[in-house]
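Final report, results section. Input specification for complex C-07:
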Amino acid sequence: MTLQNLILLATALFVIGLTGLLIRKTALGLFLAIEIMFNAANLLIVTFARMHQQTVGQAFVFIILAVAAAEAAVGISLTLAIMRRQGTLDIDEMKLLKW
Amino acid sequence: MRKPLKIHNYSKYASWSFTLDPLSGVMICFITFIGFLIHLYSVGYMAHDKSYARFFCYLNLFMGSMLLLVMGSSLPVMFVGWEGVGFCSYLLIGFYTDRQFDPETGMTCADAGRKAFLTNRIGDFFFMSGMLIAFANFGTLTFAGLEQAIHGGGASQGILLAIALLMFAGATAKSAQIPLYVWLPDAMAGPTPVSALIHAATMVTAGVYMVCRMYFLYAQVPAAQAIIALTGAATALFAATMGITATDIKKVLAYSTVSQLGYMFIGVGVGVPAAGLFHVFTHAFFKALLFLAAGSVIHALSGEQNIFNMGKLFRKIPLTAATFLVGVLAIAGLPGLSGFFSKDEILFRAYTTEIFAQAGAGWLALPVYLMALAAAGLTAFYMFRLFFLVFTGKNNVSAEAESHIHESPWTMTLPLVLLAVGAIFAGYLAPGFGHAGLWNEFLAPVFGGHEAAHASHTLEYALAAVSVGVALIGALFAWRMYATGTERAAAAAARSPGLHATLRNRYYVDEGYEALFLGPLRRSAEMIESFDRWFVDGAVNVVAFGNELAGVFLRFLQTGLVRDYGVIFALSATALLVWAMAGA
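Structure output:
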């Protein structure tokens, strides 16, 4: 498969992830969408690395994967804390930003 | 004039300084004496009123302003008093807040007070214009200063005439002359002691006092004096004609006041300010007497003021009736009473004056005299009409009032008796019949001595006889028409309904003013108001509406929902990206 297709795929994945981020009501759903966006970014980095015949990109992706996993763990524990506090994960209920 | 007493020098143009000279002295004398009697009377009359204290506050504010007016030694101080009495007149006319109507016209007492104040305000405008022109030309407004400047020949005849006429125009409002007399009949909405004090004895004489005080100016402009005398005579006759058909006891007296004020101005206008002032003095006594006696009648009848609902009261309230009769005789000019002396002196002087010739209109002298004479006859007629309808004739009193008829308490009858004494004997101070009289001698320092008229004694006696005769005819006619009831009068009225209606409706002057001035003024005020409401208020409202509209849209940025903020992030990021790629 050509590299342009891969870039297109990555972009499509990113947009899907973004849309999911904007649409999802539950916190866990948001995290899933974020994961999709991460993967899209990863794919894009690897594709560009391949384009320029370098391996730095692939190494970078490893690190990103690790960080993403850690971040997901932190996120889940935060969600757990919120669940305990509010009893619901509906993000529309968390509107303290509007007094 | 003696040196004035200075209280404080605010500036070199005007200071609170007062003068006590014979002129202010006589004014203070009767203002305070009659004022005292009216205070005493009011203790009785207003005893049951819930605003007793407020009444006396206003009354005393009035007394203070009036005294300020007559004692001021400069025009500004006098003007402060002038305004003060006008203001107190407004307060006192509108004193009753619980009465809905002034009879016939549907006016409330507050409307009457407002009418008085606004009419006076128009006069004040002319007064101030006169003052300003005087100041512009002479640089001073104190009476002493003005007198010096005018005697020194500082200004042209035109300027002097302008000042004289403008200030007289101010006096026409305060002293109820044509064309600004319209407030006085409606001022009867106020309590009777107010009518007696303000609208008979003191405030309305302020105009006459002003002309006397400024006589050094008027003596230089015979044209102005001619106009004053003419206005006075016309007013005297005009008001007298309206008095013959009035139905409210106080309104008759109000027209009588306007008419007598006309006489005072005739006196000043024909060159004898002392005589005009003497009529002020005697009129204060008998008019206050008449008003207070009328108040006593109203009090006795529990508030009835329509003379056609009275009658045959002589035996029931004899003291009031007797003092009222004294007042009627005085005003009609019965020889020997004060009114005779003062009125006769004025008529004699009006006949023999050379003012009109000096002003270049000598033909006016006779018409002015005839108008004054006719007014005298009519005065006798309507005053006796009033007396007969109230105290004799048929008893038309309502049964309810009849059961409560009582003579008034001593606080009300004592002033009546004292004023009656004054009305009888004040005349002996008089000038006339060949001698200067105590009055003129006292006022000599101000007016410069008594000039004998250029006519013989026989003429004086003859004219006196003529005026007494005319008054007698008026009185007899009234006796014939009203002494036994109102049938003859009703028949006479039926024979000439148009004339009767015109007189009843005061020659439709009020309606005329409404149509000519007040109506257009009101309409233009309404137009300005709607312009203000639509455009000025509208402009402000549009701005406010714009703000509201902005808010409606900007509200969406602040929902507090994380998702919305997420959308904003996404859109902004996309926009930035596009912008960056499109060649920033």
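The longest helix of chain B spans residues 509-554. Chain B has a mean pLDDT of 86. This concludes the modelling results for the funded period.
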